[in-house]
Backbone:
């Protein structure tokens, strides 16, 4: 399946190859740039090219690769940093220097590295697809290897191997490998989906206490520039109570990724005490890297995340920002001259997004264990205006909405999560869980906290007119308490030790403020003047 | 590779800055073309899109006088910038042609003007303090080496005086100076004269790319890329610390919109193209430092916010890419404050790493936070003052009002003076001492 280039428009290239299938990979030009078929016509195909098309000429050769865009799934992914096509960026730097060169093909994993396989079963066992065959020690992570298909095992290897070596053989004569490619756009299979029932503890007080996220759930936080999206994503990546974190830097800044890498190697996972990088995979396509690869990057990321979910892990996918993905989709759509929908986005924006969100969830894996994949995505609405199509499309499917508020950010209240507009659809189950596992007072204190914040909002309008002096004593007290809640509880400085707050400490802190309110209220009733009340 | 230049006389249409040429063989995306008119006028262009044997060309030079009978030569090469240390001290137009009267230098090397993205793993975190001499920046919104920090101005505000002050006064931590790469896009004459005088009076080195208001609009898309190719060369091949000043990005974006409209692309917000974010990122992201290499590219783009609106797509998309912003305020300007920096919406996101002991001073963070907090409080109270009047306010609130006034008049305002970081921070301490807020 070879042919020639017929035309080039932005990131898309038309080739005259027939017999291609949709989403097949194609190599174009003498530089051998990789792309993916996005449109087929008789005798020609349009390819979305993952690299800069500048310098590509009409009539140059093109060849179909007879396989869809795939990620390699195997031991060795943890701690890695990949671009949107799973090219290992550190290796790329070693080979090509500090600037990313186009058309360079590098295998995602180290094929020379030796691993140790410890079989769990024996030759002669009958297995079904997804059954456990053994483990590979990847640092402290015991990386399970499962049967790729059902049948009888003829032989299982024990001890050292490299990724190219089989770790066993099935009775049908086919070898079993610890590495397998997976087409990124296809969700990985599982037995069935379960409802999210456990919380995903983030260590962020406002989130865990007021708008909890569930393991297997989805959350978005839209916010204008500088409202703290990236800091929040990175804080959650550091502190979330999960086994594996996949962090997708999608169309954002290079310096932020350098910062993340530098910090993560020095930090420990607060739950396991292990180096943070051992549980983290980073996928990054910065804003100045090719847009078509940016579009693919979130699928690369989610496929890796599903891979760990299928091992029975709790996985968290963080993406910053999904808007940049949507913009890449728009750019490709517009170079295909498709009929645009709202604000130029293709009309399939919301269905693509919904299908992507669908890859989150709690599942019973093929092997019968339970794994979860949660997603927390940032959204960058133009002008901070939430009525725009990407925010709206996300809102239709996401389970939690954290509204990042520019006014709060300007006042340096971080995380700038607006406590009136935000919501969590997982609230009832999660609050019940915290009641049962942290303290039975959780829901009651939570109700009080919200009540105080609501009262403050109403009083604030009055105070704007009459001044705080004009309020009644009880109301002035409430204003003071609400201010304490905002400053001491809802605010959480990402640069201080306070950046992580475990649920018991979260509850203790808010309970103390609420108790102060009750005490002081009593004293007021007994005639103590507001200015004489003890502080906290 | 083609063996010779291809020439065609097959222009089928001309639409604004765009040409369609037919029956072209093996055109290359981004290929540079030279256009010659029978009357002797010439222009350069670049291939934007190819459909079979039809090439769509964007013309960068002057399009006046262009006809369908023009001769188009395809060079088989994408646009490259000539590079050498000899660019220093020179002034070029938007097409990299010297306009300072001296002959063109001999290039040592050529590089594609778009550059290549820095591999994120190769980046070094920007963390070295740059002293601009302005308190509003140094003390409250600290700039660091390798950062991109735009100035958001509005029509009529003294952005150019402020930029000039920075260009003149910026010093590295060790006291060293920068090489300034100055890129002017659509500069009116009075600004041109102003900046040329500033550059001439500079102690350190500079290179300038000047596109004036009357010069071809499309060169505004080229000039920043030339400037950045030069900056990257000086920084990463020669180990220099480069400060790139681009003014005015609003003119850049308008040029981008003009091409987009001519291409009949679907307009996005306010008519700007949907790919403007990626396009701007391809410029701004070229700032940075590289691990294990000396040299740095720091960027100070100037953006004039149309209608003073920070949510306008140009400042908005810029803010989404850069590492903070310095926002100028009309109100402060009217009060006679120079530089009229409103510190509340301003932010340097990389400040945290660039300050503290060993970089600026150990008490920097605390002073900055306190100043910020009290000023924010004072500003909030101004609204209340407007309603209840000063007399109706508590003594402590009146103190904060006075603090906010003094903060603007004495700390932010500094006229033509240059303040070093100690002077800036000590000024802050003195101010806080005069208006002690009630204990929190
Ligand atoms: N939790 C926090 N603690 C302290 N400072 C914070 C916190 N969150 C945000 N900030 C401040 O806000 C700045 C902007 O945050 P961040 O980079 O996360 O914004 P963003 O929403 O990702 O912006 P953009 O959309 O432009 O990428 C940070 O540099 C920091 O100064
Ligand atoms: Mg961000």
Residues:
């Amino acid at each position: 399946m070879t042919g020639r280039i017929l035309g080039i428009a932005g990131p898309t290239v038309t080739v005259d190859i027939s017999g291609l299938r949709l989403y097949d990979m194609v190599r174009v030009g003498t530089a051998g740039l990789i792309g993916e078929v996005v449109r087929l016509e008789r005798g020609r195909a349009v390819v979305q090219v993952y690299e800069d098309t500048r310098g590509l000429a009409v009539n140059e050769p093109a060849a179909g690769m007879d396989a869809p865009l795939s990620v390699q799934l195997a031991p060795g992914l943890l701690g890695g940093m990949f671009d949107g096509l799973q090219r290992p960026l550190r290796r790329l730097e070693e080979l090509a220097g500090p600037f990313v060169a186009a058309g360079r093909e590098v295998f995602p994993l180290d094929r020379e590295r030796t691993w140790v396989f410890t079989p769990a079963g024996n030759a002669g066992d009958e297995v079904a697809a997804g059954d456990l065959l053994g483990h590979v020690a990847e640092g402290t992570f015991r990386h399970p290897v499962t049967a790729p298909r059902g049948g009888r095992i003829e032989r299982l290897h024990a001890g050292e191997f490299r990724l190219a070596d089989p770790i066993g053989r099935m009775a049908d004569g086919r070898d079993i490998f610890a590495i397998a490619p997976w087409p990124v756009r296809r969700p990985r299979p599982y037995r069935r989906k379960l409802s999210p029932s456990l919380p995903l503890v983030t260590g962020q007080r406002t989130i865990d206490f007021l708008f909890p996220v569930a393991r297997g759930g989805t959350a978005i936080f839209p916010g204008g520039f500088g409202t703290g999206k990236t800091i929040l994503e990175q804080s959650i990546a550091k502190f979330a109570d999960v086994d594996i974190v996949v962090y997708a830097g999608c169309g954002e800044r290079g310096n932020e990724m350098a910062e993340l890498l530098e910090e993560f190697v020095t930090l420990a996972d607060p739950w396991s005490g292990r180096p943070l990088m051992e549980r983290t995979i980073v996928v990054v396509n910065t804003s100045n890297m090719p847009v078509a690869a940016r579009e693919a990057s979130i699928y690369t990321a989610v496929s890796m995340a599903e891979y760990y979910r299928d091992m029975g892990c709790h996985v968290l996918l963080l993406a910053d920002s999904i808007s940049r993905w949507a913009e890449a989709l728009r750019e490709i759509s517009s170079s295909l001259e498709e009929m645009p929908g709202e604000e130029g986005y293709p009309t399939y924006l919301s269905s693509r997004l919904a299908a992507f969100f669908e890859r989150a969830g709690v599942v019973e894996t093929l092997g019968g264990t339970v794994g979860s994949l949660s997603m927390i995505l940032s959204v960058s609405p133009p002008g901070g205006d939430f009525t725009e199509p990407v925010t709206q499309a996300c809102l239709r499917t996401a389970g939690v909405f954290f509204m990042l508020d520019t006014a709060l950010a300007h006042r340096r209240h971080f995380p700038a999560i607006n406590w009136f507009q935000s919501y969590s659809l997982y609230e009832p189950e999660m609050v019940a869980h915290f009641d049962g596992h942290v303290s039975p007072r959780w829901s009651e204190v939570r109700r009080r906290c919200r009540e105080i914040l609501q009262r403050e909002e109403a009083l604030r309008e009055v105070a704007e007119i009459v001044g705080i002096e004009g309020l009644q004593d009880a109301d002035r007290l409430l204003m003071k308490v609400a201010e304490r809640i905002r400053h001491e509880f809802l605010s959480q400085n990402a640069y201080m030790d306070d950046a992580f707050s475990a649920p018991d400490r979260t509850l203790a802190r808010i309970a103390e403020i609420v108790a102060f309110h009750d005490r002081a209220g009593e004293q007021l009733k007994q005639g103590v003047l507001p200015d004489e009340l003890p502080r906290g | 590779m083609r063996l010779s230049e291809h020439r065609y006389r097959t222009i089928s249409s001309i639409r604004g800055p765009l040409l369609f040429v037919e029956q072209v063989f093996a055109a290359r995306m981004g290929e540079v073309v030279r256009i010659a008119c029978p009357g002797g006028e010439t222009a350069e262009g670049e291939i934007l899109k190819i459909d079979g044997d039809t090439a769509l060309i964007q013309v960068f030079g002057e399009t006046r006088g262009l006809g369908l009978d023009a001769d188009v030569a395809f060079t088989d090469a994408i646009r490259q910038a000539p590079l050498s240390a000899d660019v220093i001290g020179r002034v070029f137009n938007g097409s990299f042609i010297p306009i300072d009267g001296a002959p063109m230098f001999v290039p040592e090397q050529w590089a594609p003007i778009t550059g290549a993205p820095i591999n994120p793993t190769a980046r070094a975190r920007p963390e070295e303090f740059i002293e601009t001499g302005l308190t509003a920046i140094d003390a409250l919104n600290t700039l660091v080496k390798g950062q991109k920090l735009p100035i958001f101005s509005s029509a009529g505000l003294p952005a150019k005086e402020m930029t000039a002050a920075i260009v003149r006064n910026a010093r590295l931590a060790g006291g060293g100076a920068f090489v300034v790469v100055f890129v002017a896009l659509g500069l009116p004459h009075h600004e041109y004269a102003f900046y040329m005088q500033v550059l001439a009076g500079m102690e350190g080195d500079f290179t300038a790319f000047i596109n004036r208001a009357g010069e071809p609009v499309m060169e505004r898309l080229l000039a920043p890329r030339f400037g950045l190719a030069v900056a990257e060369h000086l920084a990463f091949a020669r180990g220099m610390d480069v400060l790139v000043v681009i003014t005015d990005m609003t003119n850049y974006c308008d040029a981008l919109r003009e091409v987009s409209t001519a291409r009949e692309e679907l307009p996005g917000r306010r008519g700007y193209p949907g790919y403007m974010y990626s396009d701007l990122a391809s410029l701004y992201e070229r700032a940075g430092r590289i691990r294990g290499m000396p040299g740095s590219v720091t960027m100070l783009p100037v953006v004039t916010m149309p209608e003073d609106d920070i949510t306008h797509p140009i400042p908005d998309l810029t803010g989404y890419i850069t590492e903070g912003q310095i926002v100028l305020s009309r109100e402060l300007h009217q009060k006679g404050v120079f530089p009229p920096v409103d510190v509340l919406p301003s932010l340097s996101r990389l400040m945290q790493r660039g300050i503290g002991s060993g970089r600026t001073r150990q008490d920097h963070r605390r002073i900055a936070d306190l100043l910020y907090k009290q000023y924010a409080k004072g500003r909030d109270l101004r609204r209340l003052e407007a309603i209840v009047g000063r007399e109706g306010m508590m003594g402590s609130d009146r103190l904060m009002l006075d603090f906010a006034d003094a903060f603007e008049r004495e700390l932010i305002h500094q006229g033509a003076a240059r303040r070093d970081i100690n002077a800036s921070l000590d000024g802050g301490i003195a101010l806080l001492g005069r208006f002690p807020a009630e204990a929190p």
